[in-house]
Every structure is written in structure tokens, then in C-alpha cells.
């Protein structure tokens, strides 16, 4: 099968809800050349972004804004790779700018810390405005407990889904194989996946 060139598929949602499992499952499928690029953000495809991601996951960071700016820097570092791969064989992203908003703006309540909304969202737009998603698969059911999955984060994802309702597909809770089938069926229905 082939992902239609120019396609950007996003797997978004709560931590430990199956996004990386599904990205790996999709990557294992047989794809026609050029195959889609499968990328996790913020770890991306460079030593720099892999290092920054490890740092944000392992080192104590007292500033929620600093954490989100580091993630956004990784997005900026990888945006050319996303653009190039998208034009050839399409892209499947495990996390997108929605995580920055859900966990940063809503979850960490950055507005209450004095951050201007236009400035924050302006930085996100600077990176992502030319790479809109064709579909965002939203995973909202964690399979394990994660302390970061607090109600403000959930509310942030609900708000983003409502604002982008035409491109958002909520992923029902199911076993991994059934979830993969669901994703493939949704891609076909949207004309983003074609058989050879």
C-alpha cells in the first residue's frame, strides 16, 4: 500500500495511550517506495533532538515553559525533514504541536505564569503553519497510569479536537491489532491510503 504523497498523519493524545505502539505497528507494514517517514517528536531524526528529548525526559526541569520551548526547538530542527519526506512518501508523526499545547499551555497553565497566548501560539505557528495535518488520530484512553495525564491536559486535547473537528478522529479503546485496523480503515476512507 501507499500513503498518498503530501500526506501528514498525526498520532496524538495522552501519554501511554498507544501512540508509539501504533506508529511501530504501521511502520512494520509493507509500504511501496517511497515509504512514509515515521517520526517521533520531539526526539526526531538528529543527535541534537534525540539528546534534547532524553534531557527533557530524565533531567529535572523546573520551568514548564523551558520544557515546551525545548520541545518546540526540536520541532523546528526537524521541520525540513518532515517537509521533504511529506512531499515524497508522506509522514506519520508520533506527537505534534498539540502535545506542546495540551501539556504546556493547558496542563502547565502557562497563561497563569504570565505567558502571552499570542506569543506562545505564534512560535508554534512559526514552525508548523506550513505543515497542516491531513488527519489527527487522537488517543484518549491510557493503558497505564501516568501522572502527567491530568484533567487540564485532557481538557486541552478536547478543545483542540473541537477546534480541528474536520481533521480529528478519536481512536476507540481496543487491542493493538484492532486499533491498527481502525487507523488503516480511516486512512482509506479519507483517501489518504491507496492499495497498489
Structural write-up:
- With 196 residues, the chain is of the alpha/beta class.
- It has a single domain, classed as P-loop containing nucleotide triphosphate hydrolases (Rossmann fold, 3-Layer(aba) Sandwich), CATH 3.40.50.300.
- It is 49% helix and 14% strand.
- It has seven helices and seven strands, in the order ββαβααβααβαβαβ.
- The strands form two sheets. Strands 3-4-2-5-6 form a five-stranded parallel β-sheet, with helices on both faces. The protein has a two-stranded antiparallel ribbon with strand order 1-7.
- Strand 5 (135-139), helix 6 (151-163) and strand 6 form a beta-alpha-beta unit.
Tell me the Rg in angstroms. 16 Å
**Largest pleated sheet:** 5 strands, parallel
CATH architecture: 3-Layer(aba) Sandwich
Number of domains: 1
Order of helices and strands: EEHEHHEHHEHEHE
End-to-end Cα distance: 5 Å
Helix/sheet category:
alpha/beta
What do we call the CATH homologous superfamily? P-loop containing nucleotide triphosphate hydrolases
Q: What is the overall pLDDT average? A: 93
The outline comes out as: globular
Amino acid at each position: 500500500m501507499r500513503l498518498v504523497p503530501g500526506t501528514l498523519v498525526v498520532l496524538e493524545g495522552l501519554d501511554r495511550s498507544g501512540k508509539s505502539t501504533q506508529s511501530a505497528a504501521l511502520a512494520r507494514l509493507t509500504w511501496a517506495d517511497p515509504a512514509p517517514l515515521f517520526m517521533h517528536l520531539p526526539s526526531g531524526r538528529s543527535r541534537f533532538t534525540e539528546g534534547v528529548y532524553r534531557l527533557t525526559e530524565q533531567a529535572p526541569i523546573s520551568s514548564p515553559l523551558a520544557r515546551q520551548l525545548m520541545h518546540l526547538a526540536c520541532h523546528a530542527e526537524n521541520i525540513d525533514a518532515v517537509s521533504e519526506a511529506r512531499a515524497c512518501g508522506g509522514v506519520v508523526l508520533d506527537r505534534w504541536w498539540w502535545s506542546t499545547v495540551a501539556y504546556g499551555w493547558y496542563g502547565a497553565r502557562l497563561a497563569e505564569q504570565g505567558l502571552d497566548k499570542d506569543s506562545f501560539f505564534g512560535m508554534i505557528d512559526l514552525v508548523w503553519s506550513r505543515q497542516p495535518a491531513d488527519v489527527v488520530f487522537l488517543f484518549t484512553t491510557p493503558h497505564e497510569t501516568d501522572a502527567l495525564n491530568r484533567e487540564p491536559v485532557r481538557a486541552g486535547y478536547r478543545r483542540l479536537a473541537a477546534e480541528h473537528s474536520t481533521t480529528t478522529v478519536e481512536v476507540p479503546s481496543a487491542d493493538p491489532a484492532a486499533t491498527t485496523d481502525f487507523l488503516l480503515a480511516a486512512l482509506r476512507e479519507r483517501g489518504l491510503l491507496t492499495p497498489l
